[in-house]
């Protein structure tokens, strides 16, 4: 099936390529891993915000009144637990007024299917810019479930921000959610038989929180 590849954006930037390399390196410890995830997340936030709509307002400078802008829609960040938590700080740096929901999903190691264990999102997200945060888009099972939940809660403008994506997961999200744009820092080669992304960076939750 043909998908709309405009809905899949990989940020092409030397700073990101260098930082993704640090994430991949198995010697990178949680302290640095978290700092790099935060930095890349801020760049993703800038890229995603390029599509936000503005409302024109007036602002008084010390000298005169002039035209200014404010965001038309509220912003809601929704990290997928656990690893998505590492992306929140970088987004909040650029969007400090954002509300934050949480979705708890854990992949079953045998079936690779996501098991839900927690959902809490703000009310009135129909018109908000909802940004789903999960560093790993592997089979796409977790991402797709999270998006279904957000749509059930009424969200209409959803983007998916990840760090590393596998082709399999990208295809699944584009097929099941043609209205959702995916932003990533790297597109990797494939999944292994255990559903890990190759070359990847390993288990993002474990590397973020030092639970290896
Ligand atoms: C990881 C990752 C995604 C999911 C991606 O979480 O953070 O949520 O796997 O895989 P998928 O695209 O095949 O669904 P995991 O289930 O390992 O939970 P954790 O963050 O709590 O370790
Ligand atoms: N989840 C991870 O944390 N890493 C992978 O490579 C795949 C799923």
Descriptive account of the structure:
- This protein is an alpha/beta fold.
- The protein has one domain: Rossmann fold.
- 33% of the residues lie in helices and 30% in strands.
- The chain has helices at 14-24, 30-49, 85-94, 141-152, 167-176, 204-209; strands at residues 8-10, 54-60, 65-71, 75-81, 99-100, 102-107, 114-120, 129-133, 136-137, 157-161, 164-165, 181-184, 186-187, 190-191, 197-198.
- Strands 1, 4, 5, 6, 7, 8, 10 and 12 form an eight-stranded mixed sheet that branches. The chain has a three-stranded parallel sheet with strand order 9-11-13. Strands 2-3 form a two-stranded antiparallel ribbon.
- β14 (190-191) and β15 (197-198) form a beta hairpin.
- α2 (30-49) packs across α3 (85-94).
- It is globular, with a radius of gyration of 18 Å.
- The relative contact order is 0.18.
- The model has no long low-confidence stretch (mean pLDDT 96).
- Bound molecules: 1-O-pyrophosphono-5-O-phosphono-alpha-D-ribofuranose and uracil (URA).
- Residues 80-83, 105-107, 112, 114, 134-143, 169, 195, 203-205 line the site of 1-O-pyrophosphono-5-O-phosphono-alpha-D-ribofuranose (PRP).
CATH architecture assignment: 3-Layer(aba) Sandwich
State the distance separating the first and last CA atoms.
38 Å
Name the poorly predicted regions: none
Count the DSSP helices: 6
Number of strands: 15
Average of per-residue pLDDT values: 96
Q: How big is the Rg?
A: 18 Å
CATH topology: Rossmann fold
The gross shape turns out to be globular
- Bound molecule types: 1-O-pyrophosphono-5-O-phosphono-alpha-D-ribofuranose, uracil
Number of domains: 1
Strand content: 25-35%
What is the string of SSEs from the N terminus onward?
A: EHHEEEHEEEEEHEEHEEEEH
Helix content: 25-40%
Using the coordinates above, name the CATH class: Alpha Beta
Main sheet: strands, sense, barrel: 8 strands, mixed
User: From the helix content, strand content and strand pairing, which structural class follows?
Assistant: alpha/beta
């Amino acid at each position: 099936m043909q998908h709309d590849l405009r809905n899949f954006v990989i940020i092409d930037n030397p700073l990101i390529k260098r930082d993704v390399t640090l994430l991949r390196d198995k010697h990178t410890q949680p302290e640095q891993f978290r700092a790099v995830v935060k930095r890349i997340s801020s760049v993703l936030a800038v890229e995603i915000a390029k599509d936000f709509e503005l409302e024109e307002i007036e602002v008084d400078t010390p000298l005169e009144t002039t035209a200014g802008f404010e965001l038309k829609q509220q912003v809601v960040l929704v990290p997928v637990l656990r690893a998505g938590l590492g992306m929140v700080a970088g987004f909040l740096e650029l969007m400090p007024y954002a509300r934050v929901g949480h979705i708890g999903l854990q992949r079953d190691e045998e079936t690779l299917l996501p098991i839900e264990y927690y959902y809490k999102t703000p009310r009135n997200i129909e018109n908000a810019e909802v940004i789903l945060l999960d560093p790993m888009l592997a089979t796409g099972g977790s991402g797709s479930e999270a998006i279904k939940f957000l749509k059930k809660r009424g969200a209409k403008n959803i983007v998916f921000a990840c760090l590393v994506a596998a082709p399999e997961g990208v295809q699944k999200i584009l097929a099941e959610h043609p209205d959702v744009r995916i932003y990533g820092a790297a597109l990797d080669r494939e999944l292994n038989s255990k559903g890990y992304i190759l070359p990847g960076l390993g288990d993002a939750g474990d590397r973020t929180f030092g639970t290896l």
